[in-house]
Automatic annotation (TrEMBL):
Coiled-coil residue windows: none
Assigned protein family: Belongs to the lariat debranching enzyme family.
Name the record gives this protein: DBR1 enzyme
Top-level taxon in the UniProt lineage: Eukaryota
Amino acid sequence: MKVAVAGCCHGALDKMYETLELLQRRHNVRPELLLCCGDFQAVRNEADLRCMAVPTKYRHMQSFHRYYSGEKKAPILTIFIGGNHEASNHLQELPYGGWVAPNIYYLGYAGVVRFRGVRIGGISGIFKSHDYRKGHFESPPYNQQTIRSAYHVRNIEVFKLKQLKHPIDVFMSHDWPRSIYHYGNKKQLLKMKSFFRQEVESNTLGSPAASELLQHLKPTYWFSAHLHVKFAAFMQHETNSKEELPKATKFLALDKCLPHRDFLQIIDVEHDPSASDSLEYDAEWIAVLKATNSLVNVTPGLWNMPERNGLHAKWDYSVTEDAIKEVLEELNHNLKIPCNFTLTVPCYDPSKPQKHLEPVHTINPQTTEFCAQFGLTDINHRIQQAKEEGSARGEYEEEEEEMVSTGSAEEPSEYNTDNSGLGSINPDEIMLDDEGGDEDLSTCSVDPSPDHPPDFSASFSDIRIMPDSMAVSSDDAMDSTNEEPEKSGVSKQTENKSLNERPLKRISGNENGSSGSKKIKRRNQAIYAAEDEDKTE
């Protein structure tokens, strides 16, 4: 089965689909599935724009609203994860995943689905150590803190994914697994992105949480985006026993979606020809969600996942084959995901702009139906309850005020840095400084995409078709100096530790250092406006 993979989409749906149609016309290649690795930007209206963590000048309506309204329909089944530049209020409606438009499916905070027998998993957002152990407590309207923390990966999602035992074929993350660069052509990467050198040499580039998942899941393919550079790697996993067959992961990071950029990859993935051509639930994943439902937390307090340390009565939440069979019986062995998309907010109307439209916390019927069917906690309903109860006691507001005044609480961790707070700046991405700067949540600059988008047929370099093996050559896998690929994923010192090992400790903003607001920069400097592209090339 041919699968198209895209990096940061940034709302350019028309370009992606037009490029795929061009691929079919010119080369008679028609992928059955499109995967997008974050920064999808499912923006429905002006209120959604204000929930996207980018400076005001980069808030553009783009074309997703046309797919949301039904004016257009995605010509190919599209599955995506969230990144760090999203309409967080929209994606928050679907914490367990769901349709954001007909034929366009969001995997949720973390999720696993099946298509044509191929098992596809993913985790949304980026890693940020000081938010990692919090619950999903944010809700619109966001403040300067929560508009960012809303897209930070949480330990509960990693914990759920680590309960999986059955093999994963394809996995997606927005930020790269930390240390994956040691398994590809590191010299070429640093030649293209020299400002990564300090982080690569100190082994701090990328997400330690994603690295932990890579070590555990060992998927056949792992796709990422975020850093706006194309990079391939091949990681051979160590076996845990003599009986275990050796496994390897083919890693590919994709470039951003812009004209004249090689942003789409076509790969061949083994599939089951007899399997359904509908998108399906994954029975093991549903069973894991049911098993871990009691762990759902909607508070900003820091907490650890259960582990075998003498403090928890239960630490293993993996599921038995009987639990998986129960899920299949509940569904009468019909795993097809219902096409139950529905509009939950008004769609953008260029003839009637509403620049001051306020975002609201919405309960999506898809999530309500999903939770009712499988007996799960509706996270958004729980957040609303917590708000109402906290408001009655005057507690919820105090917690948010504490976050704003002291910053996000930090705690000891074997991961001494995280990739979203580094000093080196990627000139190919947008920069958000913590003092707010251009990022004014009270204003909205709407720049709708034109009714007649430009013809991209002249820039067919946007697509590359990978060979069946997606093999990485010896030149790609090593530097020209024949340097041995360094063992990574998680360094030897931390290889046998989990993210949850150390005790919790709150540290004030002063203890974190007064220069934090100047140091913390989001990579991304000119990804939205085409006119900025020439400046960064």
